[in-house]
Amino acid sequence: MPHDHCDHPHSLLPPDPALRVKALETILTRKGLIDPAALDEIIDTYQNRIGPANGARVVARAWSDPAFKADLLADADPLLADLGFYGRQGEHVVVVENTPAQHNMVVCTLCSCYPWPLLGIPPGWYKSDAYRARAVREPRKVLAEFGVSLPQDTSVRVWDSTAEVRYLVLPMRPEGSDGMSEDELTALVSRDSMIGTGLARKPEAPA
Amino acid sequence: MTRMHDMGGRFGDGPVRPDAEDAPVFAEDWHGRALAVTLAAGALGQWNIDTSRHARERLAPKDYARFSYYEKWLAGLATLLVEKQVLRAEDLAQTSDGGDGTGAAAVAPHPLAARALKAADVAAALAKGGPADRPSEVAIAYAPGDAVRCRRPGGNRLVDGGHTRLPSYAVGALGRIVRVHGTHVLPDSAAHGLGEAPEPLYAVAFAASELWSAPEHPGDEVVLDLWQSYLEPV
To answer: Taking burial as the number of CB atoms within 10 A of a residue's CB, which of A61, B9, B76, B222 is the most buried?
Structure first.
């Protein structure tokens, strides 16, 4: 039974979405089913503590430590757990490596699956119909909208996150970054480079 | 037999509009609130992730198209709260009367109130996550390199119109196994209270030319995570 409705419960709530959230929060709080302080804590976590800086640390370490990189590509979960990056929407992570021959890009055409413990909450465009619809069919046109153009001999592999496996792209280490420390390298790792809609930043030329 | 959310490959959506990397995580305050209410309500344990995805997917197509992202979440949440009898429709209707809850008559304790997520437990709950891998009696049938075909017709075979994670663009397509993920909960079953029915899950690669009539490049591929029962041997 697919439970299709004609009596949509959401239509009972106020039409303005901000008021709709407030209405749900109010009734659930009155019944003791949610704690507004817990909501504040969840928001603070994803606004301030869990975000792309986590993924950037993983990438910078993989660039710096070949043994870590090999283990990360073979079986990421134990390493990510050691780093404290296990958690909701990141229970099963596969890291895919960009090379001159292959560029990887991640989408969720059916909803908005995304590796939260590594990248935080997905940006608006990742959840947009345009990205969900087009990333699988015309990834190169989508990349161009991000200002990325790939060599003709680079193939594109788009990962559609249809299960509970979450994908993180390991971007190519940019030229000119030799000798940079792991901490310095993290600054080169953009969020989009770990989704595959961007490349790692080039280091600024020394003054 | 498709639903609005199954949009991979669709035409007509226009350009992708990238955000700055330092754009706010939540474009509006209520977006964060919507996410937090949804996660906190989920912690009551009355549904799983597959049920909640299905609640959003089965919004009326007109609602799915006109609602913004977090509006879909709110609508799905309202549906689940009523269907799972956490709240009554009357409870939702009363929220529209302008009451802010502060002056309301005391309400009787809700039977699920003891399960409410407390602020002090949020970090642990988020860190604990909800792994989907389970032991399974279904033997792993394919190995990397094996050719497989997505079954046709697609759709949920247990529940007509039910939840499935086989996108319609891959139905009937020929692919090859690139990774074995182990055995995972089957969403087609778990979304409908029919048990977790774990079975093997694979990453399956499809040539772009197998999926699209005008592929951009001969070397391009799309990889999907697909359960064994979505696949047939070739």
So the answer is: B222
